[in-house]
Amino acid sequence: MMIVQHTEAIILMDPIIYKAAEQGNLRALEKKYDISHLLDEFLTVNKNTILHICISSILVKEKFPATGGTDLASAVKFVEDVLSKCPAFLLKANVEDDTPLHVAARSGHASIIKVLIDCKKSQHQDLENVVATKEMITREMIGMLNKKGDTTLHDAVRHNHIEVVKQLLREVDREFSFGANGAGETPLYLAVERHFPDLVSEILNTFQSPAYDGPLGRTALHAATFSNDAGMIENILERYGRDLCKQTDQKGWTPLHLAAYLGCVEPTKLLLQYGREVAYMKDAEGRTALHIAAHRNQEGVTKEIISMCPDCCEVVDNEGRNALHLAVHSRWPTAALIIQNNPSLRNLLNQADNDGNTPLHHYYNSVGYMKGVLNSPRVDEMVFNKKNQTAFQILRSKRFPTDGDEVT
Description:
Blueprint: H1 15-23, H2 26-30, H3 50-56, H4 72-85, H5 100-107, H6 110-122, H7 130-142, H8 152-158, H9 162-169, H10 187-193, H11 197-206, H12 220-226, H13 230-240, H14 255-262, H15 265-274, H16 289-295, H17 299-308, H18 323-327, H19 334-340, H20 359-364, H21 391-399
């Protein structure tokens, strides 16, 4: 039997060091150690430095106050003093690749952020060009990625720390663009998704062209639509214009498809005002936003789309179905009434899909029933589908399955 010996040394931090860092007490630490020469001895098992520990231990006013820790003023002094003696701590990352700046941004400590950035600036005092100094700070510090792909701006935005966000944005150029993290989220997308309108405005007003990407091919406009926030939608559209309305996610959904699914009337109006052509765009299954609104029985959105884009009702999906085909499948198909009672849409009443089924075939095979649906004299009840079935025969087959097949 072979015994594997682990030769890698396990780093253990002296509890005196840990306690001193937690309390922001440099004097207690220096009684035993010279911090300017023993950087590696000031690491925990997860490679957190005394700066990580101190910043994480800052006490804030909470409903359930913690014991121990340090106040903000003491922490600021501790960080300043440590960096003056050992600047190498500034960019030292832990096992998650979090720098002290990541920890400060995540915790919302703007004053600590200032100390850390000022320290970085002091290392480049020989640079006469202020722009070059900013680029250096952005690239080497604010733009550093942890293992999740987050920059410090991602962390600050995620936790809605607006003062930290402002502090960070003051240090970057307008042309700089923070990309997506490992989850596919840009800072702008995070701010929109989490419904932080002040942060959205701050990012849009700071950068010339901030990245708006999100996961699964979504954009910040998808996220704003999901939040049903007309203000954020307008803010985003004013910056990026109508082309953003046309960007689709991995399912082929535009923001309008999402608004239709959720029944968001105001976002629907805004999106159509910026570009009616988006109402004619199909997803991977060939469905327009109207198909989805009708299928979901979203009356308000159905009315709005038909009002602004009446001829999009003519668009069929990959199975040849129009919006009425899908509307009748709802348990309470009131959206179907909106379509069938529109005089200009009477041609949809008897339109057959790829299998020859009319909306009436689908209705008689649906789970719901509502008085008045497809009871128009213009509905042809004797249309045969490609299985040579009328709608009434479909209804009979549901009651007596041996009589025939159901519509699928």
